[in-house]
Amino acid sequence: MDHSSVDVCIIGAGLSGLSAGRALTAAGRRMVVLDKSRGLGGRAATRRIDGIPVDHGAQFFTARSGAFQKQTEDWLQAGVCFEWSRGFPQAANGRIQPPDSADAHPRFACADGMTALAKSLGQGLDVRREHRVIRVEPDGDEFVLECEGGAIFHAGTVFCSAPMPQTATFAGEVAGVRQEALTASPIESCLAVIAETSGPDPAWRGVQGREGNLAWIGADFSKRRERPARRFIVLHGSAEFSDRHGDGDLDAAARILLHDAAALDPETLSSLTPRHIQRWRFARSAQPLADRAFRRSTTGFYLIGDAFLQGKIESAWTSGQAAAADFLAR
Ligand SMILES: Cc1cc2nc3c(=O)[nH]c(=O)nc-3n(C[C@H](O)[C@H](O)[C@H](O)COP(=O)(O)OP(=O)(O)OC[C@H]3O[C@@H](n4cnc5c(N)ncnc54)[C@H](O)[C@@H]3O)c2cc1C
Predict the structure, then answer these.
(1) Which end of the chain offers a freer environment for a tag, N or C, measured as fewer CB atoms within 10 Å?
(2) Global pTM?
(3) Domain locations in the chain as residue ranges
(4) Which of 60, 68, 161 to mutate to test the pocket of ligand 1 (most atoms within 8 A of CB)?
(5) Among 44, 58, 43, which Cα is nearest to 234's?
């Protein structure tokens, strides 16, 4: 049974938690990352079907700040990611419209799937998988964390990247956490459908939906190093569609998304067979707190993650870095 004492306990092995973990470990701090899942990456998630990676959470990422551009450059050099596209066509007025010519910003993806980012950040870190934190309480001038299964960790500081509504359930006794969760903006859900195509390859790599039920259609197979034996298309429902259908019949919801996709591009999207449906209950904050990168309580409990900044991979990574820098400067 684990019963460990560390400087910092990080809840969540997504991009924010691992980014913080790398910075803290590099500075020589004793830290441990706890995640409830079996894999790393959180919402930058990849599922394997017949050994073929398919991204059903985050699809790509951008690098707009200098620090994250440097991190991305390292990933590019190491072959972790590559430039997949520059802008995407838009679905509007029932048609696929050409991309905005002014949007030539690179979009990066990973040939091995988006979890490659987390695997890269997590190398050499003490990450405990299948460690769901169920309770965090102040204990003198430190925190005690309890995991499902009984493992206990003592830490002077906690970084938490779990969604705020969930954080409030296990850390509501920590000063300020319940209040922060109550005032945070709601988190939207997302229905993701992985569908196999037997039709011709589309002319596009991804299509962003600006209206209607679909928020995204991605030709996932176009990210892979070699053309896979089976080709998968990923569909994401819009927040409104996903919230409306998330508690209902997911197969029926998937059929609606497939129908809408086929209407947009009948030539390439009429022969899709759904293979997996995932409901992301906490997909994205409706309105991330753009003015800050993290929140620190007076007692040393940090809220980190993409609920801050812009709600995307770059935000998560930046949040972890900023919180680690704040901690190290104290
Ligand atoms: C469908 C979808 C599509 C997206 N598309 C894009 C995109 O194309 N580009 C982009 O930049 N961003 C995209 N995003 C957003 C991007 O995935 C996130 O911004 C980023 O991955 C968030 O990282 P994070 O570390 O903040 O949170 P997460 O990745 O959610 O990490 C939090 C971690 O905490 C763990 N956890 C939660 N509760 C507990 C607990 N009690 N105990 C232990 N561990 C716990 C979880 O298992 C998870 O691993 C998308 C997200 C979704 C859902």
Answers:
(1) N
(2) 0.97
(3) 3-45+119-184+288-328, 85-108+186-285
(4) 161
(5) 58
Phi-psi region of 105 (alpha: psi -120 to 50; beta: other; left: phi over 0): beta
Question: Model confidence over 35-86: pLDDT tens digits?
Answer: 999 999 999 999 999 999 999 999 999 999 999 999 999 999 999 999 999 9
Pocket of ligand 1 (CB under 6 A): 11-17, 34-37, 42-44, 57-61, 132-133, 161-162, 166, 170, 190, 192, 236, 280, 283-284, 305-306, 311-313, 315-316
The residue whose CA is least distant from atom 29 of ligand 1 is 42
Q: If you write DSSP's letter for every residue of 22-33 in order, what string do you get?
A: HHHHHTT--EEE
Which residue type, as a one-letter code, is found at position 241?
F
Distances (CA, A) of 13 to 34, 43, 142, 151: 7, 10, 22, 17
Classify domain 85-108+186-285 by CATH number.
3.90.660.10
CATH of domain 3-45+119-184+288-328: 3.50.50.60
Sign of CA dihedral 136, 321, 40, 286: positive
For ligand 1, the distance from its centroid to the CA atom of residue 12, given in whole angstroms, is 9
